[in-house]
Design a protein that fits this description.
Layout lengths: L3 E7 L2 E7 L9 H15 L6 E6 L20 H21 L4 E5 L2 E3 L1 H7 L3 E5 L3 E3 L11 H11 L1 H9 L3 E3 H6 L5 E3 L1 H16 L3 H16 L13 H12 L6
Parallel strand pairs: 2-3, 3-4, 4-6, 5-7, 6-9
Antiparallel strand pairs: 1-2, 7-8
Length: about 250
C-alpha cells in the first residue's frame, strides 16, 4: 500500500488514518499535503460531528519520512516552503477545523506525530505509547510555529526536554503534564476511543463548533463575535425542550 492519508465516514464520525505502516506511519511530504486537504474538506462537511485521527497498524506516527530529507532540507528556501506551507498548512487546517478532533495514540508518537497530536482537541493513548521529538540527533531544530504548538500542548519543560535532551516520555508522564485526556491499556484503546467519539457525535454539533470557536478566540485574545447569536437556533430550542420533557434530544 502506498503511503497516504485516508478518510472514512460513518455515523457522523470521520476517521483520518495516517497510512505509512512500513515506516511506522512517518509523514511524507505528500501525506502532509493530503492531511491539509482532508481537514479543509472536513471543516465544511455538515454531516461530520467528530474526527478521529489514528495511525495504521500499531503505531501513531514516528515523525517525518527521513528518506526524503536530502532532497530538500539542505536548501533554505525549500526548507522554508516545507515547514511553512506543507507542514504548517496541514497543522493549521487541523487547528481551524471547528469539529472536535480526537487523537487515538498507540506505539510511537514522535516529532511530526507529537505535532499532529498537539493539533487535536482530545488525546487518548495506550499505556505503552511513547512520546518525543529527538530531532537534535538529526542536527536540526523544530520549526518555530511547530515548536510553539507543541510547547503549549505538552508544557514548556517537557518540550525543552524533548528538544534539548532528546528525551522520550511514557504515556503516564504525558498524562501528568495534561497532554493526554485518558490513558488506557492497549487492548482497551480502540473501545475507549470509539466510545468517546460516539458520545461526542451524539451531542449538539452546533455547541461543539461554537465551543471550539470560543476557545480559539480566547486563546488568541480576540473578541468573540455575536456570542449569543445561537439564541433562536433549532438545536438550542431542541436541547432545552428535550431536557424539560425528560427525553433524549434529537440533534
Amino acid at each position: 500500500m502506498d503511503a497516504g492519508i485516508s478518510v472514512a465516514r460513518l455515523g457522523g464520525v470521520a476517521t483520518v488514518t495516517l497510512n505509512n505502516p512500513d515506516k511506522l506511519n512517518a509523514m511524507s511530504r505528500a501525506m502532509w499535503r493530503e492531511l491539509k486537504t482532508a481537514f479543509v474538506a472536513l471543516q465544511v462537511d455538515a454531516d461530520v460531528r467528530c474526527v478521529l485521527v489514528r495511525g495504521a497498524g500499531v503505531h501513531f506516527c514516528a515523525g517525518g519520512d527521513i528518506a526524503e530529507y536530502p532532497g530538500f532540507r539542505f536548501d533554505e528556501a525549500a526548507l522554508r516552503r516545507f515547514h511553512e506551507e506543507e507542514v504548517w498548512g496541514a497543522l493549521s487546517a487541523m487547528l481551524d477545523c471547528d469539529v472536535p478532533v480526537l487523537a487515538q495514540i498507540s506505539g510511537v508518537c514522535m516529532g511530526a506525530g507529537v505535532e499532529i497530536a498537539s493539533a487535536c482537541d482530545l488525546r487518548l493513548a495506550s499505556t505503552a505509547a511513547t512520546f518525543g521529538a529527538p530531532i537534535a540527533r538529526l542536527g536540526f531544530p523544530m520549526a518555530p510555529r511547530e515548536a510553539a504548538l507543541v510547547s503549549a500542548a505538552v508544557g514548556e519543560m517537557t518540550a525543552r526536554a524533548m528538544l534539548l535532551a532528546a528525551e522520550v516520555f511514557a504515556a503516564a508522564h504525558m498524562a501528568q503534564q495534561g497532554f493526554l485526556t485518558h490513558v488506557v491499556p492497549e487492548a482497551e484503546l480502540e473501545q475507549a476511543s470509539q466510545s468517546l467519539v460516539r458520545r461526542i457525535a451524539g451531542l449538539s454539533p452546533q455547541a461543539a463548533r461554537l465551543n471550539k470557536q470560543t476557545l480559539s478566540a480566547l486563546k488568541q485574545g480576540v473578541a468573540i463575535e455575536q456570542p449569543y447569536g445561537y439564541a433562536s437556533s433549532p438545536e438550542h430550542k431542541e436541547g432545552i425542550a428535550a431536557f424539560i420533557a425528560k427525553r433524549k434530544p434529537q440533534f
